[in-house]
Amino acid sequence: MYIVGTVEQFKSIADSKKSPTKKIEEICKISLDLHNQLGDSVLIISELWAQHSRGLLHGHSTTIFREMYYDYYELIESILKEGVAKNEFRQMSISGVTTMLLSMIDGIIWQGVIFRENKDFNKRKNEAIKAFMNGIRL
User: Nearest Cα to 97, choosing from 112, 85, 81?
Assistant: First the structure.
């Protein structure tokens, strides 16, 4: 499955010797390019997310999507903590910044779907990543 392979790729990046900045930038780019590679499949995945979310709201304790997303969240947290420890990133609320980064990625993916005719996706993607990184670097 393509998504499982992407999760493994993220884990490989997180475990690499790359700087925390490079790790975050690379994970952002892969995440944001995923929807271009998946085409209409991103809508199917969104429908699966919606179904799993309804399950969580109606009493299910967990779903595979929740577990996957939580792993993704923890991976980003660990990279941000590494960046702070190495004095590459400023002191921050790790959980708040992780939430902000994942929200930014989700929002840009949706803009890629909604504004499909807009050919500036790569420009907007790169500007968003740059702005985010400028906000966390020392």
Answer: 81
